[in-house]
Amino acid sequence: MGLSEAEWLKELERLAAGPSADGLTVPELSERLGKQERDVRALLKRALAEGRLKRGWRRSEALDGRMYQAPVYIVTPKPAKPSGLTKGVTKGGSGGD
């Protein structure tokens, strides 16, 4: 049985905590996860929708020696849900109009 989307996102999060703290390209993530680039892009879109995706750029060298900017991605941990009352909000109050 395969991993769920949430489990794949957790794996992307784990990879982001590894030695490549500046992020990984889609091909690098694809290779490390053993998934197709199309599937990795779908997972990254899901992480973006959840507010968990950091994007950046890395200078890389092409086969012909030219330098280029490659997009890199980091999936951050899911934010903890706030517990208790929210500061500044009162029950049934009108906000002090």
Describe this structure in words.
The chain is α+β, with helices and mostly antiparallel strands and 97 residues long. The chain has a single domain, classed as Orthogonal Bundle (Arc Repressor Mutant, subunit A), CATH 1.10.10. 34% of the residues lie in helices and 19% in strands. The protein contains three helices and two strands, in the order H-H-H-E-E. It has helices at residues 5-16, 26-33, 37-49, and strands at 53-61, 67-75. It has a two-stranded antiparallel ribbon. The longest helix has 13 residues, at 37-49. The radius of gyration is 19 Å and the shape is globular. The mean pLDDT is 81.
Radius of gyration: 19 Å
For the largest sheet, list the strands in their spatial order: 1-2
Which class best fits the helix and strand makeup? Answer: alpha+beta
Average pLDDT, all residues: 81
Highest-level CATH class: Mainly Alpha
* CATH architecture call: Orthogonal Bundle
Global shape: globular
List how many beta strands DSSP finds. Answer: 2
**What separation lies between the terminal Cα atoms?**
57 Å
Q: By CATH's scheme, which homologous superfamily applies?
A: Winged helix-like DNA-binding domain superfamily/Winged helix DNA-binding domain
Count of helices? 3
Number of domains: 1
SSE arrangement, N to C: HHHEE
Helix share, percent: 25-40%
Q: What portion of the residues fall into strands of 2 or more residues? A: 15-25%
Largest β-sheet summary:
2 strands, antiparallel
Low-confidence stretches: none
Task: Give structural attributes.
97 residues; Arc Repressor Mutant, subunit A; 19% strand; globular
